[in-house]
User: What shape does this take?
Amino acid sequence: MVSNVICGLIGRVITRTSPRIPVQSLAGVISSRNISEKARYTMSYETLDITSPHERILHVQLNRPDKLNAMNKVFWREILDCFREISDDTDIRVVILSGAGRMFSAGLDIGDMTDLITSQVTKKLDVARRAKYLQSLITLYQESFNALEKCQKPVISAIHGGCIGSGIDLIAACDVRYCTQDAWFQVKQVDLGFAPDMGTLQRVPKAIGNNSMLREMVYTARKVEGFEAKEMGLISRVFPNKEAMLSEVDRLAESIASKSPVAVQGCKVALNYSRDHTISEGLKFMQCWNMTMLQSEDVIKGSEAVATKAEKPPHFSKL
Assistant: This one.
């Protein structure tokens, strides 16, 4: 009945069952594979390890374990390039983000970044020109984390061990955040003499319900344990260990990947828009969005599956 109503609204829609196509990576066609197998990319990455645990799912792992996944100047370029590629990959529907080694991330690689900044700033004698350079550098690095938010595919972060400084900036740009019992979070920048400038102060207040606790966390740079982070609303769920967490993250990613990409990606776009606009503006946005998207074949497939109580979700074409 639901499908008949929708068909009546948008006219006769002819749907075809598309043949199942193997996963296509960002470089070419590949078959479904285990998480240990590498995903092939048009670019190679020094600081990231890319795998594909299941069809339509990509796992991006911060991969500088010997440096506690500290973020050097190569990382900032690579995370931007990586998520821009993912955004353009029509076969990928969900992304998992994690860290290799003992912790998720120690944040900014202070030594590496200090060399970059001082070598450039000291060349400029005028304060206005030094400030202009720093503004350009901050803007460039902000765009690296904005890429996760702009990517219409949901990003699930899986955090273990420490998540420090820019690590919090990074996970704040993700859609869903899980962590282990041994995880801890620290907005470290105040100890280094500056305010966070990559998203923590802008995204986290809108993601959690405890502004007072956030301010305490930011002003003091104290460590916040996993369960406390969950109470704040920064984290959705806490797991006993990394293996259990990744298993559940994998299950969640598979569930999301089985849904209509038109619906899921539309939800992410709308949620991000509504966060930054009034309710009235958000509703107006959805009028314009769904006047087109309600005509998608996915609406027909989804409605028919619900109406007939299908045991398996329908096959949705790549978007």
